[in-house]
Design brief:
GO terms for molecular function: ATP binding; phosphoprotein phosphatase activity; phosphorelay sensor kinase activity. It is found in: Cell membrane. It catalyses: ATP + protein L-histidine = ADP + protein N-phospho-L-histidine. There is one protein chain. This protein is an alpha+beta fold. It contains six helices and seven strands. The strands form two sheets. The chain has a five-stranded mixed beta sheet. Strands 1-3 form a two-stranded antiparallel ribbon. Helix 2 packs parallel to helix 6 and helix 3 runs parallel beside helix 4. It binds adenosine-5'-diphosphate. Adenosine-5'-diphosphate (ADP) binds next to helix 4 and helix 6.
Length: about 270
């Protein structure tokens, strides 16, 4: 869009309309730019494993044709790259599904205790490979929240998965769920109070300047490290969208060298009082 601004000689009743129009054009331009960046990033992320696959297939059909040892090795790399692409596509699909629903508040009651226990069960093995223990600490009588259990499970899954990836081997991951005494300023008004889910690790931590950008799609503190650990760079973007659909808030506390705590605040369901 080209917007020209001319000084108003005779301010009249239409001034504010002109201003609103300009705001809208700027916002549209920004959205368009973000969409273009997103497509470029997603394509780039897919292209990397795809080129690796093509390269190895060509090698297997050519120079390494009669080398069984190379076959084994290359197939393993190709398998890894295929899984990577599949994780990426799954995350992209999740993100677009959640975005489509973002303005429809979820219905139903979600039992956080059940959700967290089941997510812990799926990640216990992964944590154990780094000698980490997922410790659940759930307050007795925790009230249900209004929410979609699958989406909230995905929030817990992404946060605990990150704690296993970026946490120090041999240290525990603490997962707490309880009623929140206070909520961050960004938390929308909730007549029945809030509960929090907190995932704490004792890992490398996150330098302060990166924290505001963590929930941007494909934003990573250390790209190579995230890739090596099998990250897609979309986990926290997904968390942010689900939390916002649930009218909740996300806060991050981290100290470099000590660890990080990700806290999700969710409104208590009406019927729970
Ligand atoms: P990724 O797939 O790269 O883990 P995420 O969106 O889940 O993508 O996280 C974005 C980035 O935030 C990560 O690449 C990492 O740099 C940082 N991060 C997320 N969780 C943690 C954590 N628990 N400790 C340290 N850094 C983290």
């Amino acid at each position: 869009f080209a917007v020209s601004v001319e000084p108003l000689r005779e301010p009249g009743p239409d001034d504010s309309r002109a201003l609103i129009l300009m705001h809208e054009l700027t916002a549209m331009k920004r959205t368009e730019q973000m969409r273009a960046d997103f497509v470029a990033n997603a394509s780039h992320e897919l292209r990397t494993p795809l080129s690796t696959l093509v390269g190895f297939i060509e090698t297997l059909r050519g120079p390494a044709k009669d080398d069984p040892e190379a076959h084994e090795r290359f197939l393993e790399i190709m398998h890894e790259q295929s899984l990577r692409m599949s994780r990426l596509v799954n995350d992209l699909l999740s993100l677009s599904r959640i975005e489509l629903n973002e303005h429809t508040p979820p219905r139903g009651l979600a039992d956080l205790s059940r959700i967290l226990s089941s997510v812990k069960a799926t990640l216990d093995m992964q944590a154990a490979t780094k000698d980490m223990d997922i410790q659940l600490d759930i307050e007795d009588g925790l009230p249900p929240v209004t929410g979609d259990e699958d989406e909230l499970a995905q929030v817990a899954q992404n946060l605990i998965d990150n704690a296993t990836k970026y946490g120090r081997p041999g240290t525990p991951i603490r997962v707490t769920a309880r009623r929140a005494d206070s909520v961050p300023a960004a938390f929308p008004k909730a007549p029945h109070g809030a509960v929090l889910i907190r995932v704490q690790d004792q890992g490398e931590g996150i330098p302060r300047e990166h924290i505001p950008r963590l929930t941007e799609r494909f934003y990573r503190v250390d790209k190579a490290r995230s890739r090596d650990l099998g990250g897609t760079g979309l986990g926290l973007a997904i968390v942010k969208h689900i939390v916002s659909r649930h009218r909740g808030a996300l806060s991050v506390d981290s100290q470099v060298g000590k660890g990080s705590a990700f806290t999700v605040y969710l409104p208590v369901a009406a019927s729970a009082g």
